Amino acid sequence: MDSTRVTEHPTSHERPQSGAGPADPRGALLRTQEPLRAGPAAALPAQARMGDAQARTGDTAARPGDASAEQDTSDPCVKDGESPSEHSQPALSEHSQPAATEPDPHRPRPAPEAIPAQPGGEPERPVGTLGALERRSGQGVAPGAPMPMRRDGDRLRFVGAATRRIARGIDLDEIVMGLCRATVPTFSDAILVYLREPLPVGDERPTGPMVLRLRRTDRVLEERDTEGGFMPAFQPEPADLAVVTAEICEVRPGGALAEVLRGVRPVFADAPAAHDALPELLGPESELTVPPGQRAILAPLRGRRRVIGAALFLRRPERMAFEQDDLLVAAQLATHSALGIDKAVLYGREAYIADELQRTMLPEALPRCTGVRLAHRYLPAAETARVGGDWYDAIPLPGSRVALVVGDVMGHSMTSAAIMGQLRTTAQTLAGLDLPPQEVLHHLDEQAQRLGTDRMATCLYAVYDPVSHRITIANAGHPPPVLLHLGGRAEVLRVPPGAPIGVGGVDFEAVELDAPAGGTLLLYTDGLVESRLRDVWTGIEQLREKLAATAQLTGPDHPPPLEALCDEVLDMLGPGDRDDDIALLAARFDGIAPSDVAYWFLEPEEMAPGRARRLARHALSRWGLEELSDSVELLISEVVTNAVRYATRPVTLRLLRTDVLRCEVTDDVPQLPRLRQARATDEGGRGLYLVNKLAKRWGATRLSAGKVVWFELNQA
Questions:
Q1: Contact predicate 395/403, CB 8 Å
Q2: pLDDT band at 403 (very low <50, low <70, confident <90, very high)
Q3: Neighbouring residues of 712: CB distance < 8 A, sequence distance ≥ 6
Q4: Full-model pTM
Q5: What is the 3-state secondary structure (H, E, C) of 392-411?
């Protein structure tokens, strides 16, 4: 049996090993039992190593002349005061040579061939009982100091574990943090990560000089820093190395730092290339003390196209210096980190563009409509799937009506967001034509088929009339709306479900229902009521109960505030209920009382403008708005005159009193009037100019059989 025990310890940097000192804040240190140090200080502490073939086959037989055949000084049978040789004999196999061929056990052992010797090591130490005790118990190692990686296998396992930890990060901060946590304290005692400011995205060509900003630092926390450490003694345990180094560094073209970054390969701090580069990186007034010798590595971070930063690895003087193979480890860490940062920047830019694309396609604010109050909410799905196809809209219609729309394009991608924008634009155009709800869905279905064979969406389109207190609803495969009555009763409206938009060849059906004053209609997408934890009908029932419970808090005579109601509805979402984005549209029906509506039919004749002025004067007198008579009569006279000039059927005049006074004139001529500047020789063309100057707002909308021209005036 070979007297030298070769023990491999796990090198995982994620789970602390037994015996780790309290100074290890995170990760496991590579702690192997320290072997005898009989060699010169320039080499790693010697440890007998089996050949590659022996390590693979498990053969422990000693070879002739191999250092592993020397006597075991860690024999547990050694007694106090006795020499180890009295109780331990070298173990020889049946194929071993005589003992006379063994080397002197007190001769220094050469360093293993796989790991180059290190300059500037510790002075040699004679082998004895104390050395055996150190190898057996590890007491010769400073508490909390990680042992060096002695084998190529150790380095490979460390690089594998470190790259896995770095690859787990999605955004920029997670990747940089993964690099720091993977290397400290296993590979280095401290690390400084600099990144380019700003970071280039994709194929962007940076403009201006290269500027590096200190992104993150990390170090082993000790009880106190010594004079020989890389932290000045007068700095009392700072939480970050940024307090003793420059935060921003401008790389001078042709300077030492630029040459190191251009070379891409990691270099030791004592190398000529890095001798002048480190002061430029850390700043001329930096208080950071770089340890002497090969205890610092400067590694450039290069992405796919260009250098995007640098990482500085530091070891304390009491710890063994870096080896030549550690440059390869630093290169691997830098490469994986730089590529991860490059991808994170690209992903962040793509997610930002997709998010902005979707949000710009949603309405920034809903319009103020007569007889109805509106509130809305939009919540994206999880961070990894923020882009969706949910949308909502409120479109003013002629006759003080309003169209309420909510839809959901299937899928989560930029394509879904683009299709959502096209369908929303199409719905607005169709609403402007004042088509019935079922016709709007029919044309949306045709548009979805033109966009592609697999472009499908659900949509609910409703038109509310505040004068008649009625609402007309058509559905295309969307969850049914919920109506909250004034008394606190919540009702799921019975609406024909219909087929989703994009199926083609189906008819849509519309229903007309009562819309009582004080009621609240809630339109939503399936992300609110459906998730992996519940089906859609269970979610709809929970939504109905939530609305009823919220209404009970304000009493039977007062409906809950719209904004608070929307927040309460979203509170029903649990931790696992955010699988899909959510669009929510709430409409409070105030309506317009019959006493606040004046409605007349006027024959298209010359006497119509005069009759319109008299009717408007009487209505304003009844409402107590005599101070508006002059302005209203002038504007009505101009609008009615234009209507009866070309109309062939009776002209409709309607006055509505709400928070403003609204006047609507309807005729059967489809051509819309346009505002223009009349010339001095023109006899007409000034009517709309007066309307534009005197009215608060005005507009013209084309109907299926004509048009309506309206204007509004503030009440005094």
A1: yes
A2: very high
A3: 660, 661, 662, 663, 695, 696, 697, 698
A4: 0.62
A5: EEEEEEHHHEEEEEEEEECC
